[in-house]
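Pilot study result, target chain (461 residues):
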Amino acid sequence: MTTLNEVLAKVDTNLDSALDRLFDLIRIPSISTDPAYKDDCQKAADWLVRELTGLGFEASVRPTPGHPMVVAHAKSKRRDVPHVLFYGHYDVQPVDPLNLWQTPPFEPQLVDAPTGKQITARGASDDKGQLMTFVEACRAYAETKGSLPCDVSILFEGEEESGSPSLEAFLEENKAELKADLMMVCDTGMPGPDNPAITTMLRGLVGQEVIIRGADRDLHSGMFGGAAINPARVLAKIIAALHDENGRITLPGFYDGVEDLPDEMKSQWASLPFSEQEFLGKVGLSVPAGEKDRSVLEQIWARPTCEVNGITGGYTGEGFKTVLPAEASAKISFRLVGRQNPDKIVAAFQNFVRAQLPADCKVEFIPHGASPALQLPFNSEPIRIARVALNAEWGKEPILMAMGGSIPIVGSFKRELNMDALMVGFGLADDRIHSPNEKYELKSFHKGTRSWVRILDGIAG
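Predicted structure:
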């Protein structure tokens, strides 16, 4: 009987050829946000189908109103085994500004760095390098055992970087086919190059645009200043009132459903080699600006936020123009945690603004999405299995971490298919995803593949 160690050895033997395959995929400029790359997105989907078919999957390209999905299924030769669904995305971000790239973005290279060898290219980390760790884990099983240890389905999306506009309808139409016992996601990361992690919390998101209007036109500030209401001043006052002197958000009921971290997670996070000064110093800052009684890691991973993402009003062109603007607007986002209700947050914000609106001002709200946070059971069986597997591979107990951002697909699968997700990724904070000179550590790619081998073995029992 083939042993787990033989499958892991196959991963090691395959490393050079696995890199060749990853580089082939990276060379396809599958930028989903730019219509000029539509054919390349199709090409990437076709490439993945060929690879998966060669591994014994029944794989196909599924058309959508936008870029296609890749769907694949492989049945284990074993009976009565769990069924897992793995999700990744083959589309990538645009490469602008091109002049900041040290090497061509779609010509992947393996370069030496102080931390070891790195794969440099757009998509190296987000998400082609990550999704290929799972594909290569499946390859190692197929080449040693002849099949996978459990039933595996795969969904690779081509529009994640452009907001997943086709995803909800696709899930609704294909519920029965995509339903599995567990979803696996590799679009997350680790807190350090030697610190494996399982993401157990994702923040939700509410986006609101608020427009405050006063006079029926811009007014001369010499003729009307002081007498006429200024929407920019009204908006500034409202924005300033959203936080108190301790960094807490002042919306009534805002913290309903927000819970403190479990002691184990607090202890794990406190033990991480994380420097608040270095974290802020890298972007030219020095003083944490969130809730004063919370660490920076808590602030960016596990606490709710309210941030102004943009403000407009009046004359913003070159030079100077003395006007009272007829209207002023702001785009404001809320990151949610725990059991915060997005609809209640929207209502609380709108009521808060209306309560501070003076006479002669009107307000309009434009919604920009609302999704709840996701919190997985810390002691679930899949998390227990992944903790054992990652500890065995990395020689360290994995961190149960949170993500400050959102992964909409995870919430969609929870809502549509009632599936929990096991989120294990191997990206690092300095991988420069969405920026020039994106990279992925060779160690992340290699040990990430070995980690998935161990996790699949554990899931299969």
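One observation from the pilot: The first strand starts at residue 58 and ends at 62. A full batch analysis is planned for the follow-on phase.
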